[in-house]
Design goal:
Layout lengths: L1 E2 L1 E6 L2 E4 L1 E6 L2 E7 L5 E7 L1 E6 L15 H12 L4 H17 L2 E8 L4 H7 L3 E8 L8 H19 L2 E6 L7 H8 L6 E4 L4 H8 L2 H9 L11 H8 L7 E4 L5 H10 L2 E4 L1 H6 L7 H6 L4 E3 L4 H4 L4 H14 L6 H8 L1 H6 L15 E4 L7 H7 L5 E3 L1
Parallel strand pairs: 2-6, 7-8, 8-9, 9-10, 11-12, 12-13, 13-14
Antiparallel strand pairs: 1-4, 2-3, 4-5, 6-15, 15-16
Helix pairs in contact: 2-3, 3-4, 6-7
The chain binds zinc ion.
The site of zinc ion has 6 residues, from loops.
Length: 381
């Protein structure tokens, strides 16, 4: 197959005047135009680095203004879910991701449904099977076993990689975090989404502390910031995905870079839940692989990846530490893929990413592409 776009996206930057030869889905040659180009730009498909397809039914349903009240409402609602309905919504979300140009997902699954839905809607990537053990009535081992059973079902449905993953430092006790620290697989963990985690671990104060006390949680305040706590346990490791990382200090960013861990940035969800703005400029400067994620419609809103890219640019300006459009496109494609373990998701010889045609004529750079394109411009190769 010969593709002759007027521009191709390489590491987020548009290169002009090149055409691409593909044989058996593998890019075999990139060379100067040998004919008149067509009016589209070629990009690796998007990568949704952090997702909860199973929460699609909560779009516009949870109206609590900030994170803590929101997650309490979500957790309460999950206790009465109709699982068949959850299964159906998971498929809706997978289909919407595909229509939004997503080729790979870093999917957090707390049920056995995501894997099958991803396969059905041609989404690759990895399923992180969530382990959440406190505050809950049974032992940690009980919930670990349950997650193992759901993991098996997701593996059968997906046919791809499914990795057990601890939910967050305040919902998984220390012994379980130590267990994950000793596991070789690159799991995913929500970390420092708000300042509440530091308030709890450092000072035993705030909403998480009240909650932990009321529910006799097995997670205890340790007198450290949450990042120091999980790092001491060995949780921050090469290729492990740290989700959100909003409330971090400069030294934490350096430590993530040193460890070779990755980050998922979910700007629309963070804005919606009044989280601090994550230090993405600093992370990119430190060489951390950062992916862009839509999180779930319960907090991120409609499944539309262009809206996520726009918000990423917007919040970086609010913080006065700007992230540029070329970087955002890279986070949305090649770097995002690397952040969940897919290293060759680029337009390069020998690579085989899924490809998108973006039907917008006359675009000169990545900023203009984000401004002018939307999901109606997308066409799968
Ligand atoms: Zn999440």
């Amino acid at each position: 197959m010969l593709l002759r776009p007027y521009g191709i996206l390489i590491d987020g930057k548009i290169e002009f005047g090149l055409e691409v030869l593909i044989e058996d889905s593998i890019i075999t040659e990139i060379r100067p135009h040998t004919g008149i180009p067509e009016k589209y730009i070629l990009s690796p498909a998007f990568v949704n680095a952090h997702s909860h397809l199973e929460y699609r039914g909560y779009l516009d349903k949870l109206h609590q203004p900030a994170y803590w009240e929101w997650i309490q409402a979500l957790a309460a609602s999950k206790l009465t879910e109709d699982l068949q309905e959850v299964d159906e919504w998971t498929h809706v979300a997978a289909e919407e991701n595909y229509k939004s140009g997503i080729g790979l997902i870093g999917e957090i699954s707390d049920r056995p449904f995501s894997g099958k839905a991803m396969k059905m809607h041609q989404l690759g990537g990895v399923v992180y099977q969530e382990v959440l053990t406190v505050p809950r009535p049974e032992s940690a081992e009980f919930y670990l076993e349950k997650a193992e059973a759901d993991k098996k079902k997701n593996e059968e449905g997906f046919g791809g990689r499914v990795i057990l993953s601890p939910h967050a430092p305040y919902t998984v006790e220390e012994s379980m975090l130590r267990y994950f620290a000793g596991v070789d697989e690159p799991y995913s963990i929500h970390l420092a989404e708000t300042e509440l985690e530091d308030e709890f671990f450092l000072e035993n104060k705030g909403k998480i502390a009240e909650f932990a006390k009321e529910h006799h949680s097995r997670v205890k305040s340790t007198g450290e910031r949450v990042f120091e706590y999980v790092d001491r346990l060995g949780v921050i490791k090469r290729d492990v995905q740290l989700v959100h990382c909003c409330a971090l200090l400069e030294q934490d960013v350096e430590r993530i870079a040193e460890a070779g861990a990755t980050v998922a940035h979910c700007p629309r969800s963070n804005t919606r839940l009044q989280c601090p703005i994550a230090p993405i400029r600093e992370m990119l400067d430190a060489g951390i692989r950062v992916g862009l994620g839509m999180d779930s419609p319960a907090s991120g809103g409609v499944i539309n990846y262009f809206k996520e890219m726009e918000e990423c640019l917007h919040v970086s300006k609010l913080r006065n530490r700007e992230v540029y459009a070329e970087e955002v496109w890279n986070m949305a494609t090649t770097m995002g893929a690397a952040s969940i373990g897919f290293d060759d998701w680029r337009i390069g010889v020998g690579c085989s990413p899924k490809l998108l045609k973006i039907n917008v004529a006359g675009v000169l750079d990545s900023q203009e592409l984000i401004n002018r394109a939307d999901i109606t411009c997308l066409e799968w190769v």
